[in-house]
């Protein structure tokens, strides 16, 4: 199979869109996932068009037929110049998936490294095992899972009496829990950095509603934060008016774990977004958080997997000719 890689053109969007819809049909057909994204491709078309205009989209063709595409963004990730290919930014015909993706990445990564972009990030459909293997073999590692659930797929139990929605008088208690959760994320083996949260932000989250605290013997044992999205987001494949467990996230103090308090908090969050007429609820969590992996995958269906690869700069430098090394300085 002879594959040619070139910049993507507006005339290629129709074929790329067909590939993406088929990809979604194959790997995101679970009832916990919205069907919207294979029915309404407006945001997909807008995304591809903007990346074509900025020369950040490639297309793979075989005998004149579009067999795959790759579109990306450039941004700073923890202070490092990075590329990110979202789940709507790539696709390949399933029969030749491995070969097409290898050729697309070979071409794109060469251009990225020439521009001194060594951090490469992708989001893929979780069930796409062929693509996952290609990226793992290339040296990518997983770092984030997005999972989804239909709100009506969970029973509607009464909220536990030891769960309460946070009030402004709980500000200091909630802030302490949030700070503890940040320390937990920063510890081994997670080594994850969370943004600091101010008292003013805590007040805002409490006032907006959807922050729940679980109590044990008059002691705050943990929290969860659920809210409602106000727009369609095709990067994360979430719809307007969907529920989401994000921003503050969820946390249980170590001494209160394994007592089903997490399930009690989750029920409170789902009841909250269900009352606001959310059809789906979403959560994302880092794969390095092994406790979160076990808990969220028990209750949600994984939809997206984000991966990253950091190119060894010393290996690139050693492979350069003397003239290229001089250009680096």
Notes on the structure:
By secondary structure, the chain is of the alpha+beta class. The protein has helices at 13-27, 36-39, 42-53, 97-114, 129-137, 171-186, 199-208, 261-275, 290-299, 313-319, 322-328, and strands at 4-7, 57-62, 65-71, 73-77, 80-85, 90-92, 119-125, 141-150, 163-165, 211-216, 219-228, 243-252, 280-286, 301-310. A 10-stranded mixed sheet has the order 4-5-7-14-8-13-12-11-10-9, with helices on both faces. It has a 4-stranded antiparallel sheet with strand order 1-2-3-6, with helices on both faces. Helix 6 packs across helix 7. Mean pLDDT is 92; it is low at 322-329.
Number of strands: 14
Number of helices: 11
Radius of gyration: 22 Å
* CA distance, first residue to last residue: 41 Å
Named CATH architecture of the largest domain:
3-Layer(aba) Sandwich
Strand order of the largest sheet: 4-5-7-14-8-13-12-11-10-9
The averaged pLDDT comes out at: 92
Question: Considering the protein shown, what is the CATH homologous superfamily of the largest domain?
Answer: Gcn5-related N-acetyltransferase (GNAT)
CATH first level of the largest domain: Alpha Beta
**What gross morphology would you assign?**
elongated
CATH topology of the largest domain: Aminopeptidase
Main beta sheet: strand number and arrangement?
A: 10 strands, mixed
Total separate domains: 2
Task: Give the percentage of residues in beta strands.
Answer: 25-35%
